[in-house]
Amino acid sequence: MKKNNFPDNETFISVREFFEEGKELLHLSLISDSKGFDNNITHSKIQKPGLALAGYVNFIHPGRIQVLGKLEINYLKELTPEERMEVLSKVFKKKMCCIVITSNLDPPKELLELSKEFRVPIFKSSLTTSQCIEGITNFLSKKLAPRKRIHGVLLDIYGQGVLVIGESGIGKSECAVELIVRGHRLVSDDVIEIYRTSEGKVIGSSPPLSRYHLEVRGLGIINIKELFGISSITLEKEIDLVIELKKWESGAEFDRLGSESFKKHELLGVDLPLIIIPVGPGRNLAVLIEIAVRKHLLDRKIYPPAKDITEELNNLLKPEQILREKDEE
């Protein structure tokens, strides 16, 4: 998968990658020449070229996988060989990336001939058209999603994906170990691979090289799965909350009432709730993070309790403020 300059997508994959990684999931087999495996797929949505076969070839999108089902194949078989060649020639001139034929249907020989000439691979799938379309869309939605790598620790705490960030050496990994001992699960330590779904969710996972592992100063790299069992890890998790550990500094201002719920942390264009926890001697960060997650869950159901306190303080201060303003007059 690579970055590209296409306006509608940030990434693309080659037809070769689509076939090699999706052939088992989508029950694919190659029935044409392999020329064209370097063609690029740039859209997660497929296209059924019914209009194109009827002559409206301008509706063809080169970066979309063309799916031919029973309707399209039966239509082509009703045409004479000359008509098929004429119709398909116009379609292939639009430089399609590849074609998938569903339900193990046999394609007309003209389709195979033109696929070789125009370097457009053709695959056959045993899945029905609806199953194939759903499978391709789900597969490509994940492969073509905007993604990047970030630093931090991602954990599953009370069912919430919690991303813990902060400067190096502040204690993120040590805090993660204590949270795992307390029954929570590790997704990834240090390097986290994230991608954004079409629904606007940010999903995090661990790179294969560091999966299940966590580095603790003084102990080195430890295998969480082997030490604490399979229930202590999870491979992928949606990020629901970001917690930043920040060194306590004299004069620094931190939220005292919990009313700063508007703080956000942006990842791949998605604003996620952010809670900043100051780090200082004697503070149990694991417990504080658990409380922060519980507070986050509570705030999602009802408004923050600090709102009530703030309103009560304002009501108490109002009479005093009115008297002060009268004295000034």
Q: What tags apply to this protein structure?
A:
Rossmann fold; single chain; Udp-n-acetylmuramoylalanyl-d-glutamate--2,6- Diaminopimelate Ligase, Chain: A, domain 1; alpha+beta; 329 residues; 2 domains
Could you explain the architecture of this structure?
The chain has helices at 15-26, 50-53, 70-78, 81-92, 109-117, 129-143, 172-181, 224-228, 285-301, 305-328, and strands at 2-3, 11-14, 28-30, 40-41, 66-68, 99-101, 122-125, 147-157, 160-166, 185-196, 202-205, 213-216, 220-223, 236-238, 241-247, 264-267, 270-279. The chain has 329 residues and is α+β, with helices and mostly antiparallel strands. It has 2 domains: 2-143, Udp-n-acetylmuramoylalanyl-d-glutamate--2,6- Diaminopimelate Ligase, Chain: A, domain 1 (3-Layer(aba) Sandwich), CATH 3.40.1390; 147-306, P-loop containing nucleotide triphosphate hydrolases (Rossmann fold). An 8-stranded mixed beta sheet has the order 14-11-10-8-9-15-17-16. Helix 4 (81-92) runs parallel beside helix 5 and helix 7 packs across helix 9 (285-301). It is elongated, with a radius of gyration of 28 Å. Mean pLDDT is 87; it is low at 1-9.
What layout of secondary structure does this protein have?
Blueprint: E1 2-3, E2 11-14, H1 15-26, E3 28-30, E4 40-41, H2 50-53, E5 66-68, H3 70-78, H4 81-92, E6 99-101, H5 109-117, E7 122-125, H6 129-143, E8 147-157, E9 160-166, H7 172-181, E10 185-196, E11 202-205, E12 213-216, E13 220-223, H8 224-228, E14 236-238, E15 241-247, E16 264-267, E17 270-279, H9 285-301, H10 305-328
Parallel strand pairs: 5-6, 6-7, 9-15, 15-17
Antiparallel strand pairs: 1-2, 2-4, 3-7, 8-9, 8-10, 10-11, 11-14, 12-13, 16-17
Helix pairs in contact: 1-6, 4-5, 7-9
